[in-house]
Records
---
Amino acid sequence: MRPAIAQYYPGDSLMHRLDPRAKFVAVSALAVALFVRDSFLGLAVYAVAAALAYAISGVPVQWFWRAFRPLLWLVGLTFLAQVVFAPGTPFFSIWFIHLSWSGIELAAFLSLRLVVLVLAGSVLTLTTAPIALTDGLAWLGRPLRRIKVPTDELALMVTIALRFIPTLLVELDTIMRAQRARGADFRSGGLRERAHALVPVLIPLFVLSFRRADELALAMEARCYRPGIVRTRLHPLRARPADALLLLVTAAVIAAGLLV
Amino acid sequence: MSGAGEVSGPGAQDFGAAPAGMRLACRGVTYSYEEARAAVPAVRDVSLELRPGGSLALLGASGAGKSTLLQLVRGLDEPEAGAVLLDGVEPGADGYAALRRAIGLVFQIPELQLFAPSAREDVAFGPRRLGWPEERVADAVSAALALVGLPAETFGDRHPYALSGGEQRRLALAGVLAMQPRLLLLDEPFVSLDPGTRRELAQILGRLKTAGVTIVLATHDVDLAWALCEELLVLRDGAVVASGPWAFGAADDDLLARNRLREPLLVELWRRLGRDPATAPRTAAEAAEALA
């Protein structure tokens, strides 16, 4: 069992080696551009750029599909809503449904935009280790410390949460197996029965998580963790020429998309 | 231990209405875990035979595949190849599912799975899932609690998390025993227990053995394995490297060392006394008797 979204695919491609901060800025900028630009041509430029980035990352296409599948219903819903409700001259009408070419065009545009957005986002999450991503975000959030936002603490919280997701999944799996061995059934019955069947799983999982949180807090104190002091790093993030190049290329792509 | 009763309770013959132990056979059982990019073999072509009422020690270094094998036997995973035969019945044949339900599996650190608001309720979980009438459930719960030395009158209404570590372990065991298994699989049951609780647990297992329950015990504790089990099976990287009755020749030293095991203390004692290790006693009491 593993989470479908924001999964990291370990590797050593150019995309993997780029600085997480540069990647985050590039993807964010591209996302904004995606929403500003409203022509198929612009969209196509961004789609090609995102696809190229994905290809460079060397991650198998199935991994994108895995990240995208949970969002499929959203894309489908967007498409349907636009087809049905978008204004335009209908060529076919029944009851409240009025199909028009402009509606279909708009629906296709909005759905494609979502696909490109997820594609660009998955290049970021698939090629960046969650810890590196958090470090990058903490760095980018530094100016917020001026207004007393505890960015380092937030980053640490996210890091710890990410660190324990796999642990909790393993524990969840063990507890479910143990209760299955005692005859629990998680697969049949209605919604009510299934929710009820989860009680013997969730209670031990919560108890375990709280115990672990207690122990982790003690262990961190024993290792002199104190909130509010600036942390130094063994491997500080270091931007390299390739990162600057990424930002330049992204700027060029965004400009190209806006101008075509 | 706080207020834990002696492990008295009913004798072996009173252990529910459990029919005789189950016969277990594994034929070429194979299983791998799916990792990110590759399948990692965990159990490779494991075959074993265990007579009804027999007892088998499953030994091997950490990560040798002991837990996976136990879970395959219980049917929590299906083997990729090979089959687990229960009382000679092939998987998929009539009655196989019912036989599977007559297998009790005690997980590593099973007290982590306690969830009910009272000891009694927690133990009753399994029997209720078997669809037994409430009366039979109550009887089975009382018998199981008594068997593990937590009599229902004293402990039945206590909250599981208010019990000591050793009591929790025994309560979790009771939760499995209440289902009156004919084959009991135990995954490292002695881990992180104080010596007193270890001893009590070993006594409980001894009593189950006398009652005729077939037992498979995965453990690192070779002394307890030697005391409790007639046969052994050593796994290494998921494959069987030794099986059958315990035998301690010169060649076995090497086998034990390579699998990060050692021979049981009583066997070592017998060898150092110049006696035949194969006739080594199973318990300190037997040793004292033989030496007196």
---
Amino acid sequence: MTRVTKICLASVLWFSISIASAAQIAEDPQLEARLKALSAELRCLVCQNTTLADSDAALAEDLRNEIRTLMREGKSDEEITAYLVERYGDFVRYRPPVNANTALLWFGPFIMLLIGGITLVIILRKRANQPNMKASESIEDEQ
Amino acid sequence: MKLKLILPFVLFVIVMGFLAKGLFLDPREVPSPLIGKPAPTFTASVLSDASKNFSTADMKGKVWLLNVWASWCAACREEHPLLLEMRQHDLPLYGLAYKDTDTEANAVLKQMGNPYIETATDASGKIGIDYGVYGVPETYIIDKTGVIRYKQIGPITPAALRDKILPLLKALEK
């Protein structure tokens, strides 16, 4: 296959993909908006640093279609998220829930801050209790 | 103060420990929430004979392996010789042709040999979604009560077969 044919094929493919999603948006703009908002909060499992909304992976397309079906069935966003978590685990959520597994993730920074704060207080108190530590005074005395 | 001298070193060792552990983790591996839970039930047509059906209900009381594969999946071909070997040792291996056409899936089995007792078809990928499949090949071990006990993500390696799959099958058969 020549390079030109490849480019042509790719553009035809790209064009047909755009037509497909444009048609779906025209069909039910409200649902597509909801899908876009929800899938921006979900992780694509194939290219894992991409959201489900942005991914072009075949699985992401299948999952978006699955979400469309669930939305048409009248499922809430929470129910749809729960449906996906049931199958793929908490990993699909970009906002991890607060539970035993993620406690360290959520509260770890505050624990570090607390340790830092306590250390700071201890050091400052130690300095305050040492009367001869004021550097400027001692230099003045020498002069 | 001895503690003051030792403390940074201790912290360093702890951090190194975490980082060393992190080096050997696979960040792409998504632990399946389905392990220890009942395998999703499905009924699908059989690849070799579309008029017949494969149903998970028929598998009750048996320990079995479900290998999710596709003709378009390169890693599945890598895994194929090992599957054939597993079949020779009478392992209860069943297939699920994921997002594949019957013609192409059958062609692969004809060309490379058929390691499966039976292969169910999942042309739409809906069964795959229920099983939390995100990258083929994936293999599930399902026990006699229909509970998923193990999931292999990616090709089965000889090491995984020897150290995890075979011992687990042996234990479940009891």
